[in-house]
Specification:
7 helices; about 210 residues; about 40% helix; five-stranded parallel β-sheet; alpha/beta; about 15% strand; single chain
């Protein structure tokens, strides 16, 4: 089994990365493979709503979004990490996820369907719960079980060294990793016991105009 962790911070080895590593270490101890995917700092174009992804099976803009989608096909779970920028997710992770999830939903590849997900947030001080709610919506619209911890999935600090002193935040990350591993093990057991996943209904789109 494998969990793909997304680093949505402009700082490759910063606070968000430090929190992701805490989760990854627990998953590795449970014999679950992990990979931290760094979005980087190059500009991510927003979704054009061209809907070419319905035919291509990926985004028409060939950048790191498609690289992530390729990896997502073989992932069993996801952790999305972002710092707080102006009380919301980073300016690079939002267009990234918008395009990734839209391309997947229109292509019907179901890269995320019923795969567990969780968001973790890093902040100096505030804006964490608003950012957590924002990222959780990607899971909610994609039929992804959301994995919880003992507290909101967040760490605090200005530097990675600060985060390492946030004992409660790091414990929250470890418990999140433990719960993610448990869910993946239960799902694997369920499937190996010859149980089928739920039937997928076709989309019904309405815009409330009669």
């Amino acid at each position: 089994m494998k969990v793909l962790l997304l680093n949505g911070s402009p700082h490759k080895l910063g606070c968000t990365y430090t929190a992701l590593c805490e989760v990854a270490n627990v998953l590795n101890q449970k014999n679950i493979e992990t990979e931290i995917f760094y979005i980087g700092t190059n500009a991510i174009s927003p979704c054009r709503d061209c809907r070419a992804c319905a035919k291509l099976g990926k985004c028409v803009i060939n950048d790191k979004v498609n690289e992530f989608l390729d990896k997502a096909e073989n992932a069993d779970g996801f952790i999305f990490g972002s710092p707080v920028h102006y009380a919301s997710a980073s300016g690079i992770i939002v267009p990234f996820l918008d395009r990734a999830f839209f391309a997947d939903s229109l292509s019907n590849k179901k890269r995320f369907y019923l795969k567990p997900g969780a968001a973790i947030i890093s902040a100096r001080r505030a804006g964490t719960t608003a950012t957590l709610d924002q990222l959780n919506k990607y899971f909610l619209v994609s039929e992804m079980p959301i994995i919880s911890s003992r507290y909101w999935n967040m760490v605090h600090g200005w530097t990675p060294e600060d985060v390492k002193k946030d004992e409660e935040g790091l414990q929250t990350m470890r418990i999140l990793g433990t719960n993610m591993a448990w869910f993946l093990e239960m799902k694997e057991f369920y499937i190996k016991s010859n149980h089928d996943l739920p039937n997928i209904e076709n989309y019904i789109y309405t815009n409330f105009i009669k």
